[in-house]
Amino acid sequence: MATIRPADKAGSWYKKKPKDLRAELQSYLTAVPESLDGVSLPIPGARVIIAPHAGYAFSGPCAAWAYKTLDLSHAKRVIVLGPSHRYYLEGCAATNFGKYATPFGDLEIDQEVVRELQEALEMENMPKRREIEEHSLEMHMPYLYLRCQESFDSPDKFPKIVPVLVGSNNGDEENVIGRALLPYLKDPENAFIVSSDFCHWGGHFSYLPYSPTKSPSDLTQLRKEDSRPNGPPIHETIRVIDEAAMDAVESGVHEAFLATLRQTRNTVCGRHPIGVMMAALEQLRKQPENKDKGRFRILKYDRSNLVDMPGDSSVSYVSAYAVL
Predict the structure, then answer these.
(1) What's the count of helices (H) and strands (E) in the chain, helices before strands?
(2) Are 202 and 57 in contact (CB under 8 A)?
(3) 178 near 284, Cβ under 8 Å?
(4) Nearest to residue 319, comparing CAs of 46, 34, 38?
(5) How large a percentage of the chain has pLDDT more than 90?
(6) Which of 77, 89, 161, 255 has the highest count of CB atoms within 10 angstroms of its CB?
(7) Burial category of 99 from C-beta neighbours within 10 Å (exposed 0-12, middle 13-18, buried 19 and up)
(8) Three-class secondary structure of residue 17 per DSSP
(9) Each residue's pLDDT tens digit, 174-230
């Protein structure tokens, strides 16, 4: 009998009762337009998304933009790449479980692909307690289940999931992991969710940059006890820092993304899952038949708070998709 990872954050980070949770997520999805640039959603071939993983009251409206574009029509499995918040990890780590629970029902793990990736990447298993505590994977499961219900006749036709925790890897290591994912990217039966919030600003995150010129190359560090800066509001600095990262993501150049993170020290918690996916997509485009595929388009940018004082804090959220 398959072991089931419980929906650990249900009742705190999101609603526990299926009826209430469905109503909340549906309200977020309904607020997203039915089409983008004349193309009805979901966007055909949009098999890769970047979406946030905070509590739904904060990031749910932003995440809806990514999930409404996600094309699951041919999906047999969904590979979910998330960062590790609960323990230090190098390389990647695989799930211990057979299913992930949601208030709507369970999503089954594709054990065959888990084993393939474990062998290809020499992946360890996540410590069970840490996997249960980790929210970067769990927060995508209710949204994914809901979209599966919209896309398939019954749960037995739902795609299986492959949760992968991505650790603190350098650029070369991200390229190696991306290369291992390349065959899965090329397979139209695979979809991908890249889990990440963007800038975490404030004393709690030990990250308080400020730019009086609103430039990512002109940053000073505030202290949380400082008074309000005389120049532009702090939240404009946060936006500029995030825009530098988003521009790099849209460029499709893995090194450009790494470079902007080195420049700004932006606290993008899913920088390694994003880096791995950017490396994989960049390698995909080197193949002539795929040269125009796999460039991210940013759909939505949001923040938990518009910071005005150094003692404030905020977390940024981004939704994006890529067509393969």
Answers:
(1) 10, 16
(2) no
(3) no
(4) 46
(5) 99
(6) 161
(7) middle
(8) coil
(9) 999 999 999 999 999 999 999 999 999 999 999 999 999 999 999 999 999 999 999
Q: Which amino acid is at 197?
A: D
Contact 72, 159 (CB under 8 A): yes
Query: 277 Cβ partners below 8 Å, 6+ apart?
Result: 48, 50, 81, 178, 181, 192, 194
For residues 72 and 192, what is the distance between their CA atoms, to the nearest angstrom?
A: 10
3-state SS, residue 115: helix
Cα(105)–Cα(155) distance, integer angstroms: 9
CA distance 244 to 263: 10
What's the pLDDT tens digit per position in 109-156? 999 999 999 999 999 999 999 999 999 999 999 999 999 999 999 999
Confidence of residue 1 (pLDDT cuts 50, 70, 90): low
Cα gap 49→64, rounded to integer Å: 11
Q: Model-level pTM? A: 0.97
φ/ψ (deg, to 5) at 9: -95, 0
For residue range 15-30, list pLDDT tens digits in order. Answer: 999 999 999 999 999 9
Rounded CA separation 298/251 (Å):
11
DSSP secondary structure of 75-100: -SEEEEEEE-SSS--SSEEE---SEE
Q: Amino acid identity of 233?
A: P
Are β-strands 297-303 and 314-323 bridged in parallel, bridged antiparallel, or unpaired?
A: antiparallel
